[in-house]
Structure formats: C-alpha cells, structure tokens
Amino acid sequence: MGKFRAEAVIVKHVNNIEIVFYNKETIYVKNGDRWVIFHRWFAPKGSYKDWEIFKHLLLSSKHADLTYCYEKALCYEISSQLASRPPDLSKVKIDERGKNDSMFKR
Prior knowledge:
By secondary structure, the chain is an alpha+beta fold. Helices cover 22% and strands 31% of the residues. It has one domain. Strands 5-4-3-2-1-6 form a six-stranded mixed β-sheet, with helices on one face. The longest helix is centred in the middle third of the chain and has 13 residues, at 48-60.
C-alpha cells in the first residue's frame, strides 16, 4: 500500500488573501504581492498533530487573514518565513475554493 497523495493542491481565497496548501509540509499565504510560507520542514517527531490542527483551522476559517495565520502559527509553534517566489502550480491540478472573481485574478 502506497503513501497517500492529494489529488489536487487546494487554493483557498478568503479576506483578500490566497492560501495554497502546497504539500503535506508547506502552506503558502499570499497577501498583496507578498508570499509567506508556513512549514514543518524540520519539525521534531510528534509535532504532526499540531500541524494538522493548524492546517484544519486555515482550511475551515471563513474569516482568516494574514494576522490570523500568524496567530495560529504562533499558538501551534509552526515555523514561517517570507518566500522569495510564489509556489509553482504549473504542473499540478488545482482545487480552488471561495474564489470571488472581482477580487482575485491569476
């Protein structure tokens, strides 16, 4: 039995931000022209439960903004950093949620 692999990358649009659930260890958040990466790349064993809670909060929140993302990351000890470039979504299937065409354009 192989590892679970998501069928598509989820891109959620809420409160003028774009949240990209890129892979099982990386979430990108776009605010204006700035990208922030929330990740668990070097997280110790046993920290996956906190990551799952963080990911679920971002996915289910209808009022998230960048401040909310940072607050939850701090609460669950999730690392973050500014990204030098946006995520490469050219070769993946995208599942867009909450898109309002008047606010977001690709």
